[in-house]
Structure formats: C-alpha cells, structure tokens
Amino acid sequence: MNKPPARHHYVPQFFLKAWGNDPHAYNVSQKRWFQTSTANIALENNLYVLSDEIESSFITPYIDGFNSDIKFAQNNQWKDLSVIQKDYIYKFIILLDARNPNSIKQMKDGCKSFIPQLEKILNTNNSFEKNILNGAKNGVLILVLTAIHELGLNNFIQSGKSASTFEKLQTLMKFLQQNNNWPLSYLSSLKNKSVFFDEFIISDESLLCSNSPVFRHGEYDKKFTVAINLSPSKAYFISNEDNLIEKYNNMNYIEKINFFNIMTIKKSSFVFSKKKNEEISLFIEKVLL
C-alpha cells in the first residue's frame, strides 16, 4: 500500500485553482502580497494522521473525491445541479469546514469528555486502538468519523484489511452515539426545507478565498449560518437563523460582496485573490484589525 501524503492540504488544490494555479496570496501577519502555487499553500504536515490505513482508505480518496462536482458547481447555477450533485456540494462544505485546523482544534476540545470512556474500552497495546485513542486526544478521530458519517459510508464494504478497519470504526461510532457523544446528521440539517439557501453570483471576480474558507455561525444540528465563496464570482449563503437571513436579504449588491469577503477572511492567516491591488489590501487590513 502506498504511504499517504504527509502534506495535507486542508483547502484542496482543485478548489483553490478557481483563483488561479498561482493565486495572489496575502500574508495577514506580514501584511504583504506574494505569489504562490496551490501546491504550497493552505497545508500542514501530518495534519490529520490517524493511521496509514484509515487515511489511505477513507481520507484521501473520499474527502478529495468531489473535484468534478465542485468544478461543475463553480461554472453552473445551482438550479442546473442534480440532486446528487447538490448533496456532494453540501458534503464538501461540511468536510471543508471539518478538516480546517481551527475546527480540528475545536474537535480536540470536544473529545475531552469521552476520552476516559475510550481509555476503558480500547486496548492501547494494540497499535490501531492506540492510534484511535491518540486521534481522540488530538481531534482527528472526530474528523475521520464525521467524514465517514457524512459521506454515507456507514454501509460501505471493502475487502481485506480495510474492511476490518472500517468495522472497528463503525463499532466506535455506535459507541459514541449510544453515549450521546455523536451529533445529528449535518447533511440532513443543511438540506432541511426550513433552511434558507441563496446563490450569489457577481459579474466580476472580486470574491476572495482564504485558508479558512467556510464561515459558520452556530452548530449544524441547531441554529446555524454558513457562508462560502465557491469561486471568485460565486458564493453560497445557507442559514436557519431568521435575524441573519433578514439582514442578508436587506443587503445591496456591494454589501453582499463585502459580507462574503469579510466572512471568508475573518479567521484567516492567508487570503487569496484573482487580482491584486491596493484596495483589496486595505479591505483585508480593515477587516482583520
């Protein structure tokens, strides 16, 4: 089996390429522009290592398997997407959010409550189970289980070693569900008929991206708002919070551009743009003051 990559792009290269193969990047801390490539930005070494088997069987092929659907959505209107493609876009947004280092840190904090339970049921003399426990302590376990849960892989069947690994993960997932440590389906929350969805399309390419491209307010299984710039000319707004929906609907064209860009760069350390100018620099600095 090939060893999985150590360089983990938590913002996939295929997504960033909408802003160019060599996008203009702004370093927030240094307040300067620099030229980069999608291969060398928005990554961390060994960010979500749990075990080679889990990563090569689930993380790499499935989390990064939305390439063609994202490209289609970037170039076509929401109404032209199939039901399956829309599901894939929702799943991509959930996992793009979940795999970000900021989210993994939150998962690490959220794992603390059930680590004592895992220590009782896991055999740390077994290397796989030891990795599971370590994954709970560093937050990566929840990322992996979220990926399996939201991608609908619960009934996924593989042969050989992968099947055994997946069976162990399913058992662990059931344990967490039984002990109220597992949330409701994020996907079903996004797709709920009561959720407001708006596709915002602009005539130029002034929407920005960042190394924290998904803005989320609240929790998916409760009250939430999600904003994402899908490309330099398209953004999605998804919410079930009436007050934020009302504010959004009252915004004019320019205010919505600014809103999406503010949400995109709010927690970022790097910002990506299709174009580079002083106006964008001042906007970024103003937002991050």
Explain this structure.
With 289 residues, the protein is of the alpha+beta class. The protein has a domain at 48-178. The chain contains 13 helices and ten strands. It has helices at residues 13-16, 52-63, 67-75, 83-98, 101-111, 115-121, 127-138, 140-150, 161-178, 186-191, 242-249, 253-265, 278-287; strands spanning 7-9, 24-27, 32-35, 43-45, 196-201, 209-210, 214-218, 224-231, 234-239, 270-273. The chain has a four-stranded antiparallel sheet with strand order 3-2-10-6, with helices on one face. Strands 5-9-8-7 form a four-stranded antiparallel sheet, sandwiched between helices. β7 and β8 (224-231) form a beta hairpin. The chain is globular. The chain starts with 6 loop residues before the first strand and ends with a helix. 34% of the residues are buried. It holds the Pfam family DUF4238. InterPro entries: DUF4238. It comes from Neisseria macacae ATCC 33926. This is DUF4238 domain-containing protein.
